[in-house]
Design brief:
Helix content is 26%, strand content 35%. The chain has one domain. The protein has 168 residues and is α+β, with helices and mostly antiparallel strands. The N terminus is likely disordered. The strands form three sheets. It has a six-stranded mixed sheet with strand order 3-4-2-1-8-9, covered by helices on one side. A three-stranded antiparallel sheet has the order 5-6-11, with no helix packed on it. A two-stranded antiparallel sheet has the order 7-10.
Length: 168
């Protein structure tokens, strides 16, 4: 029995060493702003075999890490509405600031950076084995009037200010 465990451990170690050094890869980020400033944030991603194993063994949880990242910048609790091995969706109350004016409101989103997420994943035991990419291929911010701001392969989004006309 001990030999079986030793063989399985050696096999697992061999698989981990010969595997390509792929890692967490952010595919897309979509931030949909509601008229009241709340946001639904969806991130699509891919996990490496090692990271999928870490999720399976409850060592890490990408949805919880995304929630934690947005919780730190929100005055109200963030809610995870969906989480899978390839995506997570969170609701962030009062994500954007609304400046009310005559005939139009200006919605201002905060800057968003995933540089801290990179630091978090680098603290895990498997960090030397992977090369995470937290720059989504496409990041999109969708405003209530349908306007879309798109960014390609950036780790941080700048604040965005958008006038939204109100009905009289």
């Amino acid at each position: 029995m001990k030999h079986t465990h030793l063989i399985l451990m050696c096999l697992a170690l061999t698989v981990c060493t010969v595997m390509p050094a792929q890692a967490f890869e952010a595919k897309s980020l979509t931030i949909t702003i509601a008229p009241d400033g709340d946001a639904e944030i969806n991130m699509q991603y891919e996990l490496s075999f090692i990271e999928q194993s870490a999720v399976f063994f409850k060592i890490t949880d990408p949805a919880a890490e995304l929630k934690k990242a947005f919780d730190s910048g929100s005055s109200e609790p963030v809610t995870v509405t969906q989480a899978t091995s390839s995506s997570a969706t969170v609701i962030v109350p009062a994500f954007a600031t609304i400046h009310k004016g005559a005939g139009k409101n200006t919605i201002v989103t905060p800057s968003v950076s995933f540089a801290k997420a990179e630091e978090v994943i680098n603290s895990y035991w498997f960090a030397p084995l992977v090369n995470p990419d937290f720059s989504p291929a496409v990041s999109t911010v969708v405003f209530p009037d349908g306007y879309r701001a798109e960014f390609q392969d950036v780790i941080s989004l700048p604040p965005i200010s958008r006038p939204v006309f109100t009905s009289p």
